[in-house]
Fold each of these.
Amino acid sequence: MPSPQARAAGLGEPLLTARGLVVGRTHGIPAAGPLDVDVRGGEVLGITGRNGAGKSTLALTLAGLLPAHGGEVTASATLVGDLRVRRGRVDDPFAWSSRALLTRIGTVLQDPEHQLLGRTVRGELEVGPRALGLPDAEIARRVDELLQRLRLTALAEANPYTLSGGQKRRLTVGAMLATRPRVMVLDEPTFGQDAVTWAEIVALVAEVRDDGAGVVVVTHDDAVLSALSARELPVAPADLGSQLRLDRPFGGETCPKSTVPPESRAAPSASEPCVGSTADGAKRRVDRPSGDENRPGRSVGPAFGAPPGAAPPGAAPSGAAPPGGTPGATS
């Protein structure tokens, strides 16, 4: 296993750049900003701050799942590649479809259950690669490697909703890594892990960093920042009395768009409270937020119905750190 602190020989170009960025989940009410942010290849950017500071909202905006409320997020030409978009700027990640995001910006949400889709652990790891149309042999190779590295091999045929909170978190990290995105955005990826799996996740993140990926980690865990030699970006709540220039008018909540291609989604539930259209025309939804600590992930998880035979969300322990583990905290 490589040393997490063994950094790449030199930092790459900025893959994502934000200038004067104001983020929020309710139109006209900023959660954080204005901020200037650079996400560079070969580097880990650690977003820190107290609960409710806007860390998760900032991460979702950098990931292209929420629109900027002010300023802008710009992707590099390397990250854009030959992409075309139907509307908006081609270098604005929020204008990208879910399929376009798969190999460009991968995201691990704060609550693992909000992005589980597969009927089995193996099936969950296969969702992204199958959406990309990869050959079966390549899919099997990637999935088997991730199952082993994340110590999930014995659970390959288990229903994801029956896993422990720590196992679900490892699974969502693996599902993101399966598509090998150039930028990774992870919200509390080590929360609920014991010492062994904590080290495995940190080592995996270090590997993709050293391969030139840009990594954004939201965390309260100083040990993660130290192990990954992360550059820290402290975030504080926006001053609601300040004169921030907001590019979006006052209104209702902004729904994060789905990270999953349309053909991989189940039918939406009419009972969900927040519905909108993503950049690629697919429905998205989210629990109504009352603050940044509220989670956005209804876009890809139980909102569309758990797999048949699944345990109800919350039936399995979620987020509890095993004895001797490395607990985190929600952001």
Note: The two ends are 30 Å apart (CA to CA).
Amino acid sequence: MSSSNQEHPSHVTLLVGLPGVGKTTLARALTSRGGGYVLNRDDIRDGIFPEAFLDYSPRQNGVATDVMFAVLAYLLDVHKPERLIIDGKPFSKSAEVRSLTDLVSTFGAKVDVVCCEAPLAEVQRRLSLGLSDPVNRRAKRTPEKAARILREFEPLDVDHLVLDMTRPIDQQVDLVLAYWAGYRVPNGSGDKQ
């Protein structure tokens, strides 16, 4: 795949969902099968702050989000990549989703929103298993954090595809690829809302 596409607008996919639901796993699988590039807010944060100063605070995450948006704008304006996937942040607030969709539309790019869901108990189980990783402990990627974010999650007010992230990842990738191609995803395996 070429890094830019001058004939067709860029296509941006925003992954929405709780920490631990499987957004990053999905992003990697999508780029492997469908091509494109991932902009991951967590990777950006970890790359711009020296390790000794990583505190994973809301303020630090806000800086990383601003940088991610600036990189997204630059890429859409200058390089016009065929496909970008936005990951590494729950996007739990309507205003966050709207600011991204507004930015993308400024450059004439197409945006899809994919909502990754799983029962809270499953997300908490995954996060508990991940606490053996010191990075996850330091970032406070805990079952309690997932429960707090879920309580604060606002309904999406844009068209979106809903994925059941308890199903095999290959099935979820197939659904997103079909969604990208403009096919209606059958009820029960994902809903376009």
Note: The longest strand covers residues 110-117.
Amino acid sequence: MDRGKQGVPAASGEWLAPGVGTSQACAPASRVLPRQRPGRLARAWLSIIALSVLPPVLATAQTIYRWVDEHGRTHYSEHSPEQERAGVVDCPPPPSAQEVEEARKRSERSRSEAERLQRDRQSRDSRERPYQPKDLGPLPLNAASELMATRGTGCLVDWREAPLLKFAFTLNLNLHENVPAGALIEAEFENPLDPADPLRSSVVVEVSGKTQVKQLSVSLMSPSVTVIQCRNYLVRVRAYRDAKSREVLDTLEQQIQSRVDSTVWQQLGEEYAIERLSLHGHVCR
């Protein structure tokens, strides 16, 4: 909140806002200033003087005179000089009592609204204090086998078609150099809807570039589902020599932890669910 514009103490100084030219000199004062850059220096001095002598609520408009003496020095005063030709500084009137009261009310409304928003946030945070879901446990360790090693796992949430939500598992693997080019890496992700019908995903180990560099890492993502719970899901991975022979070279099992419950997400709504996920790292019961 800008108290210089809405707060009561500064309300009487609103009419001395910068950028109004000589209007900043609208207060009883008498100063002698150097000839160099008279306008900017005069305004700087007189702004300080004006703010120091104004009453806290209302100031009475007075006539301020400005003149330049024979030595080129600029003077401001509430008294017109007898031997010099002075001009009258055009000073806007101070705020009225009604304007000051309206500013005070605006300030009060803004403060009340800020306090209400703070109370609402504190109340929501108290209901959503960080906690580890009791049935979830720590994140599973990355598994490793003779030819494969888990580099990372994840559970993706796609809300672009909200209210319909889609969830998918991801698995990133490092491959041993002995895995041949053309090998098939196939993953069977546990299906939250039907464990007997796994979600399958596969990728072929390829070579690329003029030097035929073989890739030593792969990423797999399961088909999406619309229901998921906060628990660990199993993914089984097999490395085949190629897609045709189906000769198994290696196998690996990895647990993937879902920290999202689709039912809780729907109950919270997209905004609060995303906020809880970013703040607490889960959307669980």
Note: The chain is about 25% helix and 25% strand.
Amino acid sequence: MRVKRTKQNIIHAFIELTKEKNISAITVQEIAQKAMINRATFYAHYRDKQDLYQHIFNQVIGLFAPLRNPRLFLNRQIMFSDLEKTITAVLKDCNQNRDLILFIIDDTPAYKLQEQLRPVLAANIAPILDKVGINRNSAIPADLVITYIIAMFTSVIAWWLHNGAAGRISEHQLAHTLVQLALEGHMKVLGFEPKF
């Protein structure tokens, strides 16, 4: 329990320091002071500042893991009611980890974030896209569609968390809206048939 609390303090200190200055300008000593620990304690948990950043990054990517659930994509069709429930759960986790999410979304180049999130979606959605003729050789490449979905989702989450919308729009409302936009927008254009 104490180890977990120490790690949380280190992460919190690091994130707070990034609000004051660029990551590259932050030292391990500053992180340790802000976390009220010594440098040796920091190094007992992380190799260096980059290791700490990577730990936070992996933790955030892990919040999206429920979207890998193959039951959301049965028989190469999207199960929209299950997808809405899963997105709601992911949004709850994002809201509970607001500082971590915003730290990663705001301080990570979009391309790096998309590349890390791509496996979360690609394994399940690529066969569905292929079923409607969307692959790497089609007029609309599958990679473009997956990138679009990731960019849209991360941008909406950032907007929701940054603008205090998390207090005005519930996780369920946002998940429902995202699914409705998908049904009436890009999914419809791509030829998907919703299954509820």
Note: The longest helix spans residues 110-131.
